[in-house]
Amino acid sequence: MIAPEAMQGILDKSRKAKENAAAYPRERFAYPAVKRLLSGKVFVGIAGLRGAGKTVLLRQLASRTPGSAYVSMDALPADARLYELAEQLHSAHGIRYLFVDEIHAYPEWKADLKKIFDFLDVKIAFTSSSAIEIAESRHDLSRRVAIVGLPPFSFREYLLFKKGVELPVLTLGGILADWKKEYLKVQEYEPLFMEFCTGGALPFSLENPDPQAVGNIIDKIIQRDLPSVSKFDAEDAANTRRMLLFMARSGIEVCSYSSIAKNLGITKYMAQRYVDLLSSAFVLSAVLPHGTNLTREPKFLFTLPFRAHLSSGVDEARLKGALREEFFAHHVRGLLYVKGAKGQKAPDYFVQLGGRRLVFEIGGAGKGATQLKGVKEKYEKFILSSPASDKGIPLVLFGFLY
User: Hey, which CATH number is domain 4-149, 3.40.50.2000, 2.60.120.200, 3.40.50.300, 3.30.70.790?
Assistant: First the structure.
């Protein structure tokens, strides 16, 4: 039982959170999907990186939903239980929709969601910054929860929030078929490409462009999120920070579990564990190789804009090259990287588009077709360039795929 004075504090914070939502009239592209799911029978989970805008989206929903309350689990009294909170809010205050922020801060959340779903007439929408917690909830909660991912901005969404410009979604096939026509419609925004890659991809940067804010996100992930889902001590935290710096300052092509282990003086198993944990927190992604009879060692990419923050002192050309690849991976779904035979030049990425087999080489304005010369004819081959040039398709166009 939550004491009356504590409950009043919860309701006051909910009211202030709803009022705060009025400062954010523009909606993320994921908003309609969450709202639509919330009108159905299931609970809704919103998963994404810290700084991606989950809290704002949740407050927007709460402010526009009659009979609702917003709570942040890390701000509740230590002895508060989610089920009891939902029961009291419903019975004493008529709350039918409960919006729960950072639910993974409460250890028993999955068990309590089951009870709320089965025994209370209360709908739940919640957020989490942990992919591990969300993945487990899919299994544990089964039919009770639908998960919506909230990634950082796409370049198209960034332009909407940054410039108020609403541009149509492009398709991969449409870009490949008529990229010159499509580029004419968006070329004036290409100068924002590097700004997007080095900070603008995260929504909070619109209000707080301080680069240190990105570092603060990394700190919270290492200090709070990872220990909440795994045995993770001070030595693990120090190793993880060192690993991130090593990966950000190394070339994408040479970074592997083995090289991480050697540089940090740890086992390969521990290197893989750290990578997996940071992938669960949406900081890293592992892209698998395309082809057969290959060692299934992934290529590691950062979520934008973490590499730019961590890569102080890195050669500018190498940094830009990595950011181009991460921009492409940020927008193109289902890609694999191309791993050539030892000593053989190979393009960067492979994508299956229906029955079409596509390979892409990504580079600067002067990028040539050297990497594509050894590619078999069964693949369609494309050069992507940033900034735009007459040698390939402008990379910026792929920022409009969603």
Answer: 3.40.50.300
